[in-house]
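Protein 1 of 2
SEQ + STRUCT:
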Amino acid sequence: MSVFSKPLGVQLLAEFWECDTERIDNPAQIEQVMRDAARVAGAEIIGSMFHEFEPQGVSGVVVISESHLTIHTWPEMSYAAVDIFTCGEHVDPWQALEYVAKEFGAEEMHAMEINRGMQITKTKKRETVPQ
C-alpha cells in the first residue's frame, strides 16, 4: 500500500479575465500589488523584478522566503496569468490571490491548486495471523 506524505507547499495557478487594462500594463503598479499580496498572505519578501514589454504587457516575480509570486499580463486581452507558490503553514496563498484579483479588477477568475512535494511512501503489508 502507498501513502502520500504531507505536501511541502501549495501552488496556485490562476487565470484573470476582464482586468482593468491600465492596471495590468503598469509595471510599477503591478509590482506594488504583487508585493502587497505577499504581505497580505503573511510572506517574507526577499526581492522582486518586473519587465515591461513593447508595445504592452508586463512579466514579473516577487521572491519570498516561502517561494514566489509571478505574473504575466496581456492588456490587449484584459488578461493576466498569476502563479503563487508557498511553502510552510503560516502563509495563505489564497489571500494573496484574492487580493491580486481585486486590485486588478478581474471580473472572472479561474484557479487551480496543486500540492507540491508530495512524496509517496510505501507501508509494510500487515501480516495475517492464521486462525
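Protein 2 of 2
SEQ + STRUCT:
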Amino acid sequence: MKWKKNHRRGYSCILLAIIMIGGITLFFERAGSSFGRTVSTSLLFKLADSYQAGTIYDRNKTVIGRGVEIGKMEWGLEADAMDACSNLIGTPIQTTFASSYTVLGMAAPNLYGYYQNRFTNWKDWLFPRKRIGDDVTLTIDCAMQEEIYKTIKNFSNACVTVINYKTGEILAMVSVPTFDIRDEEALQLDENGVIDASYNNSAYMNKNLHATYMPGSTIKPILLAIALDAHPELKDFVYICEEGNHTFGNMTVDCFDGEFHGKMNLNDGIRLSCNGFAIAMSLEMSEEELEEGLKRWELDTAKQYENRFACDSSSFYGKGEHSQVNRILGSIGQGNCRVNIYELSSMYGAIFFNGIRKDPIFIQTENNTNSKETIVCTEETAKKLQKALISVVEEGTGASYCMKEEGIIVGGKTGTADVNLETGERTVWAVAGILEEDMPYVVTVCLADQGKEASGGTTAGPVMKEVLKKIVSKR
C-alpha cells in the first residue's frame, strides 16, 4: 500500500513538472519582444560573448555587416558607404556606455539571440553547436546615407537626418567625422576598454541622436504653433519691426545683422525670421499655456521610445529658471534652449503631417510597420505654418535650397545660433519638408563649430540644396 502511494505521488510530480515546463514555455513564447525592452546590459554583454551576431541589412536588403564568429563582424559595404554608416552602427557594445544610441545597441537582443526560444530548440541543449543571432533589417537607405556623407564629409562637425514624416521611418542619419569601423584595433579605448567619446569631435557618436545643439530660429515655428493653438486669433497678429520696438521687459533683442523688417504678419515673420515678431507673439501666451504646449511637443520632457530607441532630450528652458529672460532667449533658440537633431526633425514632421507626430521606426519588425502617433497641434495651425514655411524656401531665408525648378514643393526654416559671442562660434541649420506624396520627407542639416560669418541661409542652405538634389535624383 505504501509503495502504491509513493507511485501515485511520483506520477503527480511528473505531471506537475510537465505542466510547469509547458507554462513556462508558453510564457516565453508569448512574452517575446516585451522582454527586449527591459533586458539588462550585463545580459546583452554575456550574449554578445556567446553568440555569433546575425546579419544587418538596410531597407533594400543590402548587407551592411554580418557576424562571422563570436565577437567578430564582417562589413559588406564599400569604403565611403561604410564610413557613412560607422557611428550609426556603433562600436562593439562592450566598449561604450552609450550603446543604446547605436544599431549594435538597439538591435542587440535580436543580433545576439535574446528572442530565440530555448525550449523549442531543445536539441541545442543536448548537442551544443555554434549559436547564431537573428538578422536585423534597418529602415536606413544605405545609398542615400552614402550620398549625404559625400556631401558633408569635409566639414569638421556636421549632421544630417532624413525621416519619413508619415510613417516615422528614419531613412538616413549621417554624423561626421566618422571612424573606420573595419579596424577595431584602432579604437581609442581607456584602461577599462571603453571608447573615448570625445575623440576626434565625437567621431564614435551618432550626434543625430546623442547630442543637443542650440537651434537658433528653427525653434520659432514650434513656439508659434503653441501660441496659435492657445490663441487661434493670433493668426492675425501684427508686429512692427523697427528701431525702438525691440525691447521686451528689460531686454533688447535685435534681428539678425540688426535688420529692421517693418510691418510683420505671421507669414512674413516666419519667412524673414524676424526675432521681434517671434518674441512678441510668443509673449501673448501665459507661462502656463507655454509650459502646457512645451509638454505636448515634448520639450523639457524626457521621451521614452519603444524598441530600445534612444536619443538625447530636447529642452526649451534647460536647467535654467522659467524666467522672462530665459523665455525670450528660448523663443529665438538661444540661451538654454537645446534640441536633438532627430527630435527637431520629428517636430517639423508633425507640422508637415498636419499636426501628427510619429514615433521613430529604425529597425523593421512585423510589429512596428505603423508607429505610434501623437497630436501635437491642430490641423489648422499646421496648415498655416506649412504655408509660411513654403514661403521661407521660395522667397525668404531658405531660398538657397528652393526646388521649384526641379518641380518639387519644399517648405523649411533656417537657423543661426550664436554659441559663443566672444569667439564668434555658431551652429547653423537648414530644415526642409518635402511636400510630395511619394517623398514625405523631413531633412535636417546641422553644421556646428562654424565661424561668425556663417548663417543658416548662406552656409547650411547650400548644403541642404545638394542633399535635396541627391534625394530627389533617386526618385
